[in-house]
From TrEMBL:
GO term, biological process aspect, one: ammonium transmembrane transport
Chief location category: membrane
Organism classification: Eukaryota, Viridiplantae, Streptophyta, Embryophyta, Tracheophyta
Keywords: Ammonia transport, Membrane, Transmembrane, Transmembrane helix, Transport
TM ranges: 29-51, 63-82, 132-152, 164-185, 197-215, 227-244, 264-283, 290-308, 314-335, 347-369, 401-426
Domain Ammonium transporter AmtB-like: 29-448
Name by which UniProt lists this protein: Ammonium transporter
GO molecular function annotation: ammonium channel activity
Transmembrane recorded as keyword: yes
PROSITE patterns to which the protein is assigned, alphabetical: AMMONIUM_TRANSP
GO cellular component, one term: plasma membrane
InterPro entries: Ammonium/urea_transptr (IPR029020), Ammonium_transpt (IPR001905), Ammonium_transpt_CS (IPR018047), NH4_transpt_AmtB-like_dom (IPR024041)
Lipid bilayer topology: Multi-pass membrane protein
Similarity remark: Belongs to the ammonia transporter channel (TC 1.A.11.2) family.
Organism: Spinacia oleracea (Spinach)
């Protein structure tokens, strides 16, 4: 952003070559692959997971919420939101809005704006800005989709369509700039390797807050909300797990030794957390739960994210034990026994799997961040260290806590304001009749050609009386 690397790139293009002297083909290839792996976590990963883990009558609506958010975020990102997250400073916590569409800009060498302050000047990736925009855009998109998990089964789809660009603009960009784009938390030294705070704490807190303002699902859905396809849900979960190698592996902006460690730590922590969650299910409930195993996988992936390339492999196991137990306790014990939490209908428990696990991971990173690994990640001699390595490492824990509290506070306020403003224009929650019908009322479409629990036949939409009787007979046979 302030040098002539983009002009050099154009000159090389004009001379019939696309390899400027600063380009590292390996780094560029890995960054584009990592970005696409993150994209696959959303589409089809979370589209499949959401469409399968909900009650049959909400399968289409839940999948579409994820699909719409993915598309809408991409357009908003390149039009104004990327530079609000990684552009020049407007406020200590916010960048200046602007398009990321110009060829000269996109073909220039990627750079983090913090380098213009003289902070971590070596954070200058060896690939073009287009790769950076794409990678960070996939992070923004999945954050929005994770947030949606709190609102499945009742939010007015038109309200959701308004909520996505507003929340991206006034909430996500603030966290991203503050912690990654050269904002005050970045300059202060808060560590968030690949989004434990920017993505997971923000989506978990914002989802829980929005769930309060939107209101709960229908009483019938809250009482009984069985997944419509557990095996397909596992397919979505598998895409999410393996895609996380790009999620964390691309966080170092290079195909280097730290990215390899981040990928390994990610999978170690996820596996440990899944096993820990399953063990607690067996001890407490007497049998293992497949959905519980997926939740344990998720909390492990979330917990390791802020420290994936900053902690040693043994620490990843410790983090997996913690992420498979503490979020389990808040979800299975605290939530079920504390009435104020029960009053808020967080459909998929995003508060526990993302906000709790993300904050836990950020704080534990302050304990276990190894000074040699932070040096590799940040590219400067300055050694940031976790508390277990002494040398004032306890200060890092305090910084991690403050950083997490800022993300929590900003999302509580900004999400509340956005929901209130949208509510003045359009109802946030579907009508009771729409809640009774589900997908057919919201989209005029259904996931399966079956009649089942929780559905209402609408004779104004479907066939004549004879066909209606035939359809009902077929449906009854299939249900039996």
């Amino acid at each position: 952003m302030g040098d002539n690397s983009s002009l050099v790139s154009i000159a090389y293009m004009n001379n019939s070559t696309s390899v400027p002297p600063w380009l590292n083909k390996g780094d560029n290839a890995w960054q584009m692959i990592a970005a696409t792996l993150v994209g696959l976590q959303s589409v089809p990963g979370l589209v499949i997971l959401y469409g399968s883990i909900v009650k049959k009558k909400w399968a289409v609506n839940s999948a579409f919420m994820a699909l719409y958010a993915f598309a809408a975020v991409i357009i908003c990102w390149v039009t104004w939101a990327y530079k609000m997250s990684f552009g020049y400073e407007l406020l200590p916590f916010w960048g200046r809005a602007g398009p990321a569409l110009d060829q000269t800009f996109l073909l220039g060498r990627a750079k983090i704006p913090a380098s213009k302050h003289g902070i971590y000047p070596m954070i200058e990736p060896f690939y073009p800005m287009a790769s950076m925009v794409w990678y960070q855009g996939m992070f923004a998109a999945i954050t929005m989709i994770l947030l949606a998990g709190s609102l499945l089964g009742r939010i007015n789809i038109r309200a959701w369509m308004m909520f996505v660009p507003l929340w991206l603009t006034f909430s996500y960009t603030v966290s991203a700039f503050s912690l990654w784009g050269g904002g005050f938390l970045f300059r202060w030294g808060v560590l968030d390797y690949s989004g434990g705070y920017v993505i997971h704490v923000s989506s978990g807190i914002a989802g829980f807050t929005a769930a309060y303002w939107v209101g709960p699902r229908s009483n019938k859905d809250r009482e009984r909300f069985p997944p419509n396809n557990i095996l397909l849900m596992l397919a979505g979960a598998g895409l999410l797990w393996l895609g996380w190698s790009g999620f964390n592996g691309g966080g170092t902006f290079s195909a280097n030794v730290d990215s390899s460690l981040a990928v390994l730590n990610t999978n170690i922590c996820a596996a440990t957390s899944l096993l820990m969650w399953t063990l607690l299910d067996v001890i407490y409930f007497g049998k293992p739960s497949v959905i519980g195993a997926v939740q344990g996988m998720m909390t492990g992936l979330v917990c390791i994210t802020p420290g994936a390339g900053l902690v040693q492999a043994w620490a990843a196991i410790v983090m997996g034990i913690l992420s498979g137990s503490l979020p389990w306790f808040t979800m299975m014990i605290v939530h079920k026994q504390w009435k104020p939490m029960q009053a808020i209908d967080d459909t998929l428990g995003v508060f526990h799997t993302h906000a709790v696990a993300g904050l836990l991971g950020g704080i534990v990173t302050g304990l276990f961040a190894h000074p040699d690994l932070t040096k590799v990640f940040l590219g400067v001699p300055e050694n940031k260290r976790g508390a277990v390595y002494g040398g004032g490492g306890g200060v890092q824990v305090a910084k991690q806590i403050v950083g997490g509290l800022f993300v929590i506070g900003w999302n509580l306020v900004s999400t509340s304001i956005i929901c209130v403003l949208i509510g003045l224009i359009i109802p946030l929650r579907m009508s009771e009749e729409e809640l009774l019908i589900g997908d057919d009322a919201a989209h005029g479409e259904e996931a399966y050609a079956l009649w089942g629990d929780g559905e209402k036949y609408d004779s104004t939409i479907h066939a004549d009386d004879n066909n209606m009787q035939n359809t009902r007979s077929i449906g009854a046979t299939q249900v039996v």
